Amino acid sequence: MNAVEIQRVQQRYGSMQVLHDLDLTLGEGEVLGLFGHNGAGKTTTMKLILGLLSASEGSVRVLGGAPGDAQVRRLLGYLPENVTFYPQLSGRETLSHFARLKGAEQRQVDQLLEQVGLAGAARRRVKTYSKGMRQRLGLAQALLGTPRLLLLDEPTVGLDPIATQALYQLIEQLRSQGTSIILCSHVLPGVERYIDRAAILANGRLQAVGDLPSLRAAAGLPTLIRASGLSQAQHWQARFSEAGHSASSSAEGLLEVAAHNGHKLGLLRQLLGEGQVADVEIQQPSLEDLYCYYMQRAESTAPAGES
Amino acid sequence: MNQIWNIARKELSDGLRNRWLLAISLLFAMLAAGIAWLGAAASGQVGFTSIPATIASLSSLATFLMPLIALLLAYDAIVGEEEGGTLLLLLTYPLSRAQILLGKFIGHGLILGLATLIGFGCAALAIAVLVADVELGMLVWAFARFMLSSTLLGLVFIALAYLLSSLVQEKSSAAGLALGVWFVFVLVFDLALLAILVLSEGRFNPELLPWLLLLNPTDVFRLINLAGFEGASSMVGVMALGSDLPVGNGLLWLCLLGWAGLALGLAFLAFRRREL
């Protein structure tokens, strides 16, 4: 059973259509990255899954039930963007309150505070917390009741690099335990290692969805080969350019060549076989490159008035 | 039921934490004691006069104070929670909007009810202990009725505050509207009724006019407390109309309850329609 099934959803606010024909599924134990610009429809998609909105058309199923069902909500954890809490309560009181509402055991409160590194600040009022601490409290809140589906909206905002790493490790751990996760983020670098599939939304339309290799293949973006310590770098640049590859070189023996689909291994073979190379780096199109590619494609194909 | 209580206990503990309960209780106790002993100072009399006079003065005071405190306590219940960002989170938990609203209603109601019980209860206790040969049965009966009806009046205005809070988009608008509601029910309504009475010069159906009092919960509250005493001489102004009202005390209580139910029902409808 899929954790989330969104089928042919149209969502309108008055005369404004914010989602067009959205089809999206999330398998059990899968981590899906949901990416898009502001107003692309990410939050609306989240709200549909949470049952805060009902779809104008189409169907949404969550954990086998209707979104918003008390039973479904008990199995769901949500970290909203810019999460806020009651400022006058302490971290522990906050978590304790939400644990009661979730029907989670109170002993989980201290465990989670420990897990997100807030055990030392548990008795302090939330209004004295930094943004990063609030975010970690928000994460602990989302993990109450051991959810089977976790929705994380911009979870790394306000987190320092170490806390961000800890969050990603936690995501990996949860995935290995079978938790399905949707991760909305603007911060793309670093995310790609932790997601199984990426979905890119623009102007309320799903532009692409799939794992990174298939998105790379579909986009046809070149892989960058960077060779250093190369004698006759300029000669190699001319040779590759003549063959139709985009290449650049420097007097210090650095060569960069963009290899399109199917050419990567051939170019490497030539370089390593015939050239004197000190080092080679291969840079595949990153999630950021893919995002930019699909966004630009969406811009150029958007019907008038949508972009 | 459990979820309703979870919300209610949060509101109650907030009321304890931010000293609302303490402040209102102290205010009520001091005002009630002051009125009991100094209420007749204007007529040159110092000291406790009588239970009916004390209750009459307290009712007039509560008519002003109770709606104001209730509105202050609850005007930001919904819009404040949304502005603070916690409403979105709450609504993703396994509890319905009705449970949230009822939980808040019970929590705020408990704060107001406890403050009334502690504040006015202390004053009643002081009268019982300090005033010689006071009629204890009457004191208990009159104060119990006064405290219960005061709390009920407070509940009406708490529910009205939720209605406003569910309709507006900003906390400041809710505060402004709450003041407006207080103004209308506590000050303007009776003046308008008196104006109708005077300007119509008898053309207005005199049997209809007393019924109009039931359209204002603060008037119903005063009728409950003033009509409880034989030959209540304190029925002045628009309240004098109440003596023409052919309804029993039970119906007045029902009417106040109905007001609370109606306001809460409307608040729920507004909250249910509210989009996040």
UniProtKB/TrEMBL annotation, chain A:
All residue ranges annotated as the ABC transporter domain in the record: 4-228
CDD domains listed in its UniProt record: ABC_DR_subfamily_A (cd03230)
Entry-linked Pfam families: ABC_tran (PF00005)
Gene3D superfamilies: P-loop containing nucleotide triphosphate hydrolases
GO molecular function: ATP binding
Keywords: ATP-binding, Nucleotide-binding, Transport
Keyword Cell cycle applies: no
Keyword Transport listed: yes
Protein name in the entry: Copper ABC transporter ATP-binding protein
Organism: Pseudomonas fluvialis
Lineage, opening ranks: Bacteria, Pseudomonadati, Pseudomonadota, Gammaproteobacteria, Pseudomonadales
Gene name as annotated: nosF
Automatic annotation (TrEMBL), chain B:
Coiled-coil portions: none
Membrane-spanning residues: 20-39, 51-75, 112-132, 139-164, 176-199, 251-271
Keywords assigned by UniProt, alphabetized: Membrane, Transmembrane, Transmembrane helix
GO cellular component: plasma membrane
Domain of life the protein comes from: Bacteria
Molecular function per GO: ABC-type transporter activity
One Pfam short name: ABC2_membrane_2
Listed name of the protein: Membrane protein NosY
